[in-house]
Amino acid sequence: MSADDQWRPATDVIAGGRDHNDGSLTTPLWPAAVWETSSEAELAALATGHRPDRFYGRYGNPTVTAFCDAVARLEGTEDSLAFASGMGALASVVLALCSSGDHIVATEHIYGGTSAFLRGPAARLGIETTFVDGRTPGAMAAAVRPGRTMLVIAETPANPRLNLVDLDEVGAISGPFTMVDSTFATPLGQRPADHGVDLVLHSVTKGIAGHNDVTMGLVAGERELLDSIWAYGVLHGATPSPFDAMLALRGLRTLDVRMDRQCATALELAQRMSNDPRIAGVDYPGLDSHPQHDLAVTQLRRFGSMLALEVRDDPERFLDALRLVRRATSLGGPETLVCRPITTSHVSLSPEEQKAIGIRSGHIRMSVGLEHVDDLWADIAAALDAQE
Ligand SMILES: Cc1ncc(COP(=O)(O)O)c(C=O)c1O
Fold first, then answer.
1. Has 283 been annotated as catalytic?
2. Which of ligand 1's atoms lies nearest the C-alpha of 155?
3. Is the C-alpha dihedral spanning 136, 115, 203, 361 positive or negative?
4. Residue 58 known to be catalytic
5. Extended beta strands in 185-260, E state
6. Contact between 237 and 222 (Cβ < 8 Å)
């Protein structure tokens, strides 16, 4: 495979990350934390070398490199860098690019952990964040303080209610670095770099690895910018495990077919829910009723496997009555999962902060898995019946 090969994403997920397989059809797992050299001079060169992946585990690892190559190809970026988790990626980018006195602009509809990191540790280190409604045209650019704002962070589709941010708008912001958390979309749902965005962040833990057995994060972008994040990352130490990289690459191979099924089921469930009087509201970018459906149609290649619903009655009773759908906080895997944002993904926000970004007690986030749509709907309908 060369950079000139023009394949579709469904082919790239299969073909990518194989450059150093040495004839093995699967990517070799290199569990090594340490590598030896044939001379002292070689060891000395590696210690100050450019992102060596056969030197010391915290600097890089060939199995991780293979995974990063495959995702960079899908994102249409020069390169990518992996971390021990999505939060490891986020913290490393913020602390690599920002110093005390610097300023960040972030969208307010964002994963609770990201919000907590910006409001907590980053603020404590003197890095101030202004949160804006990313749906309001021009709001992100207007919040940029020339000379002080180092980073603009947008999440789209956003956790938990699937609000969107216009990627062209993020890409057009000049001055600070721009980064989009594209976790909900996966690399097959959108390509922020095509819109001029500098960095694309993923919690690989979710759809990319796709089987709830990996904790990992990734940032994709231009090599030079990633080099400086890597130089910081080696000291920060949120190093991904090679075992996780192997599993993530195996998961990536089936991302296209998994997304086909999960997105189709999510749309079908969203449609059934929006016609059910027991449900007060459904958020899904593929529904005509989604306030940003037009943007979803132009920006997303797929509407995604995530939706949010609001039940009219007791959300706890509804969740406890489910038998097939599982109560758990992650997303993007084969099992359909549900959680209440107020008690899980956004529990770090105060009730006032949750309310301000539209998260209410009855909201339930659903990650649609690979089960048959009719079995899922039967389970959901029975749990709704249990409320009456
Ligand atoms: C959108 C989004 N970004 C980042 C993260 C953090 O990822 P991780 O749990 O892998 O640290 C999450 C986790 O739920 C998420 O949903």
1. no
2. 1
3. negative
4. yes
5. 199-203, 217-221
6. no
Helix (H, G, I), strand (E, B) or coil at 22: coil
CATH of domain 255-385: 3.90.1150.10
CA angle 154, 75, 142 (to 5 degrees): 25
What is the rounded distance in angstroms from the CA atom of residue 309 to the CA atom of residue 282?
4
Exposure letters 84-93 (e unless 16+ CB within 10 A, then b): bbbbbbbbbb
Q: Please name the fold of domain 9-253.
A: Aspartate Aminotransferase; domain 2 (3.40.640)
Mean pLDDT, the chain, whole residue set: 97
Question: Kind and range of the H or E element at 307?
Answer: strand 306-311
What is the average pLDDT across 268-295?
A: 97
The CA 86 to ligand 1 mean position distance, Å, reads 5
CATH 3.40.640.10 positions along the chain are 9-253
pLDDT surpassing 90 at residue 3: no
Strand 199-203 versus strand 177-181 pairing type? parallel
Where does the pLDDT of residue 306 fall: very low under 50, low under 70, confident under 90, or very high at 90 and above? very high
Average pLDDT over residues 63-91: 98
pLDDT bucket at 5, cuts 50 / 70 / 90: confident
Indicate which residue of 102, 181, 198, 244 is catalytic.
Answer: 181
* pLDDT tens for each residue of 166-188: 999 999 999 999 999 999 999 99
Amino acid code (one letter) for 121: P
CA 53, CA 61: separation in Å to the nearest integer? Answer: 4
CATH 3.90.1150.10 residue ranges of the chain are 255-385
Which of these is catalytic: 73, 111, 284, 302? 111
User: How far is 255 from 210, CA to CA, in rounded Å?
Assistant: 7
Which residues are bridge partners to 245 per DSSP? none
Is the separation of the CB atoms in 119 and 258 below 8 Å? no
At position 119, the amino acid (one-letter code) is R
